From TrEMBL:
The gene is purM. PANTHER family: TRIFUNCTIONAL PURINE BIOSYNTHETIC PROTEIN ADENOSINE-3 (PTHR10520:SF12), TRIFUNCTIONAL PURINE BIOSYNTHETIC PROTEIN ADENOSINE-3-RELATED (PTHR10520). It comes from Nocardioides panacihumi. The keyword Cytoplasm applies. This is Phosphoribosylformylglycinamidine cyclo-ligase. NCBIfam families: purM (TIGR00878). Its main location: cytoplasm. Gene3D superfamilies: PurM-like C-terminal domain, PurM-like, N-terminal domain. Keywords: ATP-binding, Cytoplasm, Ligase, Nucleotide-binding, Purine biosynthesis. The lineage of its organism: Bacteria, Bacillati, Actinomycetota, Actinomycetes, Propionibacteriales. It is found in: Cytoplasm. Its EC number is 6.3.3.1. It comes from the Bacteria. HAMAP family: AIRS.
Length: 360
């Protein structure tokens, strides 16, 4: 390989960047990227930009474009330590498309960015496999991405991932706080586990403070700790889009960093308050494990972890049964967790968590 500027063979490789390994990674990931296509996607890998046929938007009267970007935080450290890399990409897609869908937007396409200390083709391909698989499940196209080798900045086995997605919603179908009304019902949708938030706390509590090992089988989890911590984020996109289109649901909230109350407050109008009954569900064992091992106060754990609820819908009472049935058809467990009422003094735009989880 020849450096294009100096003509010195292998000069870039001597600096720690392996272009041949990057090319090999592209070859290995092609199969998976090809699966994550939509009819509007033009071209394939290798272009400077991903192309998407925007004439698909002509069916809208007033299309609103929506965009979201995110990463997966320190969950990548668990993947690195376990040397399992085909699920972290699934988390990445879940983080961005489920932020997008809460306003009723359909995710159209996504791009990803992977930075690593050293390109190991099989590892990069595994990450992209997870991204592509999740794009299929979300109904979005993977139109492009970038893999960057950063020797000296990241250790050879370190990496981080980020992504961005773009979607569209008809202006008249936009969901949000402007629609939420007194009497709406809070419908909680189960998370698959921790998803991709709070891992700095989880790692500190379970691995450092508690001295647990990722390879250790934990009876209450029914599997190893590492397997539990790598459980992929549930993708709600298709199920929530169907709910948005087939019911009168007013708003949705993706429960990520900050926990249930803080994220639900983002879609609450000031004149109303939502009351959520903890007694309507029991968080998965991993949440009580973190609480017990770290002696974490309930307010702290609720402000950090999703506590078993990954998405929330605010729906008129007349549409509750239909909404829960649609989610069940999509394999998303859901239940009535609370209600929306007129706000009292000091509760404007607030979410109140009341009661206690069974067994806590």
């Amino acid at each position: 390989m020849t450096n294009a500027q100096s003509g010195t063979p292998g000069a870039y490789a001597a600096a720690g960047v392996d272009i041949e390994a990057a090319d090999q990674a592209i070859e290995l990931m092609k199969e998976w990227v090809e699966k994550a296509r939509r009819p509007e996607m033009l071209g394939g890998l290798g272009g400077f930009a991903g192309l998407f046929d925007a004439s698909a938007l002509l069916r809208f009267k007033r299309p609103l474009l929506a965009t979201s970007t995110d990463g997966v935080g320190t969950k990548v450290e668990i993947a690195r330590r376990m040397d399992v890399h085909d699920t972290i990409g699934y988390d990445l897609v879940g983080m961005v498309v489920d932020d997008l869908v809460v306003c009723g937007a359909e995710p159209l396409f996504m791009t990803d960015y992977i930075a690593t200390g050293k390109v190991v083709p099989e590892k990069i391909a595994a990450i992209v496999k997870g991204i592509a698989s999740a794009c299929v499940d979300a109904g979005t196209a993977l139109v492009g991405g970038e893999t960057a080798e950063h020797p000296g900045l990241l250790a050879p086995d370190e990496y981080d991932v980020a992504g961005a997605t773009t979607g569209v919603v008809e202006a008249d179908d936009l969901l949000g706080a402007h629609l939420v009304a007194e009497g709406d019902v809070v419908i909680a949708m189960a998370s698959s586990g921790l998803h991709s938030n709070g891992y700095s706390l989880v790692r500190h509590v379970l691995l450092k403070q508690g001295g647990l090992d990722l390879a250790e089988h934990v009876d209450e989890l029914g599997r190893t700790l590492g397997e539990e911590l790598l459980e992929p984020t549930r993708i709600y996109a298709k199920a929530c889009l169907r709910v948005a289109r087939e019911t009168g649901t007013h708003a949705m909230s993706h429960v990520t960093g900050g926990g249930l109350a803080a994220n639900l407050e983002r879609v609450m109008p000031r004149e109303l308050t939502a009351t959520v009954e903890r007694g309507t569900w029991t968080p998965a064992p991993v949440f009580s494990l973190v609480k017990r091992v770290g002696d974490v106060p309930q307010p702290d754990i609720e402000a950090t972890l999703n506590q078993g609820v990954g998405m929330v819908a605010l729906t008129p009472a007349a549409d509750v049964d239909r909404t829960i049935a649609l989610l069940a058809e999509a394999g998303v467990p859901a239940w009535v967790a609370g209600s929306v009422s007129r706000a009292g003094e000091g509760d404007e735009g607030r979410v109140r968590l009341v009661g206690q989880h069974p067994g806590w």
